[in-house]
Design goal:
single chain, mainly beta, 7-stranded mixed β-sheet, about 50% strand, globular
Length: about 110
């Protein structure tokens, strides 16, 4: 059973923005210790983008600080990843992961130059 569902990916021009969503249909996000976003870009290993704890503490990959923001909406039971000033090298599949939840199915982000 899929426990985390990503959405919001798509095609965007360089310099544009996208907001990804990670929903947890079967569990409230406040009960999940850590939820994180990861990405797999072509030719590279999957890497951490950002994480958020149940207490709201956030952490980012150093290279993405300032452009990406992770947040959560308790009422919507969703974790978001706001991505600004997108670059072609941000192209890849973005995955949501939750502690004791596993991985979502991923959502494709394509940035055209």
């Amino acid at each position: 059973q899929v426990q985390l569902v990503e959405s919001g990916g798509g095609l965007v021009q360089a310099g544009g923005s996208l907001r990804l969503s990670c929903a947890a249909p079967r569990r409230h996000i406040s009960s999940i210790n850590v939820i994180s976003w990861h990405r797999q870009v072509p030719g590279k290993q999957r890497e951490l983008v950002a994480s958020i704890t149940s207490g709201g503490r956030t952490n980012y990959a150093d290279s993405l600080k300032g452009r990406f923001t992770i947040s959560r909406d308790i009422i919507e039971n969703t974790v978001y990843l706001q991505m600004n000033s997108l670059k072609s090298e941000d192209t890849g599949v973005y995955y949501c992961w939750g502690e004791n939840m596993g991985w979502g199915q991923g959502t494709q982000v394509t940035v055209s130059s």
